[in-house]
Amino acid sequence: MHLRWVLALLLLLALGVGASAQQAAPTDSGKTLKVGVYVEPPFVEPGPNGYRGLAVELWEWTADRNELDFAYQALPTIHDLLQAAEKGEIDVAVAPLTITEDRLKRVDFTQPWFNGGLRVMIEESRSYGIREILRGLVDAGHVRIYLWIAAIVFGATVLLTAVDRHFDQDFPRRWHEGMAESFYHVMSVATSGKAAHKQMFGVFGRILAALWMVCGVTLVAYVTSSITTVMTTNALTNQIAGFSDLNGKTVGVLKGSVAEAYSRDRGIGTVSYGDLPQAVQGLLGREVSALVGDAAALEFYDRSHPQLPITEVGGIVHREMLGFALPQGSPLVHELSLAIIAATEEGLLDRLRLKYLGSSN
Questions:
Q1: Which of 103, 106, 159, 204 is least enclosed by beta carbons within 10 angstroms?
Q2: Is there a contact between 252 and 270 (Cβ–Cβ < 8 Å)?
Q3: Residue 44: φ, ψ to 5°
Q4: DSSP string of 285-334, one letter each residue
Q5: CATH number for domain 30-115+321-357, candidates 3.60.21.10, 3.40.190.10, 2.10.25.10, 3.40.50.2000
Q6: With contact defined as beta carbons under 8 Å apart, do 137 and 143 qualify?
């Protein structure tokens, strides 16, 4: 009988200890959380007293709701931020982090708090300089023909010099002076179709001069048309109206981002940058043909820098959901998810979208 009472008492004590442990685990109020951030306006950006932005305000609201103490720690790239969360070096990762199957194998995510997607940014009214034209001429095989034309002009210059030195007593005796004189006559016929050279050899000479004039006009027409064709082709083939026009081009992406993986999976060449300002400089410096990134971040950067010749094209591709990332097994996931749901129900997220994005949609 006494044994039964003792066992019952031990069972009640065990249940009481377990319940109190479960209640204490989620908040761990005595601990200051390490909150990693990655700067990407309008979600996270430096402020007068630390950081501000859509994601930061949402995080601070959820932290205040759960009475959590925390300190921010900035990381240079999305890759570094996720790696720190995976290793447990930070307790929460606050940034526009896309929830993907691959990332869920490494970290836990809260309830999504934003629906976004990827979009393309290009340089507005991009012009094409000498370098692009030369590359187009080489690719089309025109430069090889230009070299043949140059060889023919040189040969004609040498031949005309030799003939004039032999038959024209007034022709300069020095070779370099004679070559210069002959080169002028050859190019005059080739470019203008007019022969300023002294008539020689009677009818035969006139026929030769006429044939050279025809050849000269043809050469000029060919050079002009080939350059025009290359310029037109460049303008057409380099027009980017959306993601479907990126095949065969190189795009800029943020290191460790979903845009990086999405572009590479589709065979598009990428150049990875640490942050969006670096990527935009790469775009304007002609390092890449376009940028692929989070639509909201690209649009916000464009609005914030009206002096830059950049614009977004095409619709949103690869719809995605954003959330906060935590180390796997973190007891904070449930509490933060409940707070995010409450923020949605109370209209806080709509107000934050309107404040930072100009739209609550």
A1: 204
A2: yes
A3: -140, 125
A4: TTSSSEEEEEHHHHHHHHHH-TTS-EEEEEEEEEEEEEEEEEETT-THHH
A5: 3.40.190.10
A6: yes
Q: What is the pLDDT of residues 301-337, one digit of tens each?
A: 999 999 999 999 999 999 999 999 999 999 999 999 9
The Cα 325–Cα 26 span in angstroms is 16
Please report which helix (H) or strand (E) contains residue 347, including its range.
none
Q: Which two three-digit tokens encode residue 142?
A: 């025109």
Neighbours of 37 (CB within 10 A): 25
Phi, psi of 37 (to 5 degrees): -130, 150
For residue 92, give Cα distances in angstroms to 35, 290, 301, 321, 353.
Answer: 5, 32, 25, 17, 22
Distance CA 85, CA 328 (A): 9
Q: Minimal CA–CA distance to 289: which of 255, 239, 342?
A: 239
Amino acid in position 314: G
Instruction: List, for residues 255-281, the tens digit of each pLDDT value.
Output: 989 999 999 999 999 999 999 999 999
Nearest C-alpha neighbor of 266 from the set 278, 249, 291: 249
From its phi and psi, is residue 314 left (phi > 0), alpha (psi between -120 and 50) or beta? left
Strand-pair category, 269-273 with 250-254 = parallel
CATH homologous superfamily of 123-128+240-318 equals: Periplasmic binding protein-like II (3.40.190.10)
Total number of residues shown for the chain: 361
